[in-house]
Design goal:
This protein is α/β, with parallel strands linked by helices. The chain has a single domain, classed as P-loop containing nucleotide triphosphate hydrolases (Rossmann fold, 3-Layer(aba) Sandwich). It contains 11 helices and 12 strands. The protein has an 8-stranded mixed sheet with strand order 6-7-8-3-9-10-12-11, with helices on both faces. The protein has a 4-stranded antiparallel sheet with strand order 2-1-4-5. The mean pLDDT is 92. Bound molecules: iron/sulfur cluster.
Length: 324
């Protein structure tokens, strides 16, 4: 990989869950998560709800402060070597709830122009930029520019949110379930728009979704999270065709197939993930893993490299390395 544009280093975030002193409990939302993003690539992030995907996204864009760990942008530690203001111009986020993301009292043009004016652009230039961006995301500025959020459909609002993110001319956009609330046909249109914008502007995306089909479609690499940790990370093609972590295998087996002959009747992932307040020792997946063996319940598996750009935190890979 070339020098990363954005990287997360040993991010940890625990939330208070009540109690005092030795009885104090914490939700271990994100536990020692590290990854890198190359300029122009899309990293998909998948996992069941509560696995830490969204908390990781918020730590990455500095909406949340990590307990420990750091984020680097172009090699500079954010908040120390690079100011938060400059970082936020370069790294934008689009959320799932398109309505809550927009100020209900602002017209769409004002909503898009707001960011650039705060960063010093004249009102006239910011309005012109907002009109251009509205047009670029497929909404006629003359028709939609003066409307308020409640006067738009979910898909139209999400287009405005993408335009709002682009108004800063960012290099990275983090999309947290950004198309999940949309109808399938609208979702496909917004995905195509995102891919066109990435090509045109050389954007880098972090694309978080529970939908593995969509993630495969848009991502160059994919990171699989389980109970606040990275289970596997690698190129989308090899991760989908030859997963190296039993949790990834189980997630893929649970994917709805369009081929009726390939539909599975058995749930490959039994039960819910364990409580993140008290995660299992050893491999956190061992309580649900069909392939668990000797060391799994006691020893934490480290990230084992599989080739140059693929890693999985599973003892099976170590066992296979030994055999090899
Ligand atoms: Fe399963 Fe053991 Fe691998 Fe964990 S380390 S995923 S329990 S085989």
């Amino acid at each position: 990989m070339t020098a990363p544009i954005l990287s997360a280093h040993n991010l940890v975030k625990h939330f208070d869950a009540g109690g005092f002193g030795p009885k104090r409990k914490v939700v271990r939302a994100v536990d020692d998560v590290s990854f890198e993003l190359a300029a122009g690539e899309t990293l998909g992030v998948v996992g069941e709800s509560g696995c830490g995907k969204s908390t990781t996204a918020r730590l990455l864009v500095q909406l949340l402060k990590p307990d420990t760990g750091s984020v680097r942008f172009n090699g500079k530690v954010v908040g120390f070597e690079l100011s938060l203001k400059e970082f936020r111009r370069q790294v934008q986020m689009v959320f799932q709830d398109s309505f809550a993301s927009l100020n209900p009292r602002m017209t769409m043009i004002d909503a898009i122009a707001f960011g650039p004016t705060v960063h010093g652009m004249s009102g006239r230039d910011a309005t012109r930029k907002a009109q251009d961006l509205l047009e670029r995301v497929g909404l006629d500025p003359a028709r939609f520019g003066g409307r308020y959020a409640h006067e738009l459909s979910g898909g139209q609002r999400q287009r405005v949110n993408i335009a709002r993110a682009l108004a800063f001319d960012p290099q990275v956009i983090v999309l947290d379930e950004a198309v999940s609330a949309l109808d399938k046909s609208v979702e496909a249109q917004v995905l195509n728009l995102l891919m066109d914008l990435r090509r045109e502007r050389g954007l880098t995306y972090v694309f978080i979704s529970h939908d593995l089909n969509v993630v495969r479609h848009i991502s160059d690499r994919v990171m699989v999270m389980y109970l606040g940790e990275v289970a596997e990370i690698g190129p989308a093609e090899s991760l989908y065709t030859a997963p190296r972590h039993p949790y990834t295998e189980a997630l893929l087996a649970a994917m709805p197939s369009l081929d009726p002959d390939k539909r599975t009747m058995e749930a490959p992932l039994a039960g819910d993930p364990p409580n993140p307040i008290d995660p299992p020792p050893g491999c956190r997946f061992h309580t649900r893993c069909a392939q668990a063996f000797g060391p799994c319940a006691a020893q934490v598996p480290f990230q084992h490299a599989i080739g140059s750009d693929h890693m999985a935190a599973c003892h099976l890979n170590r066992a296979q390395e030994r055999v090899a």
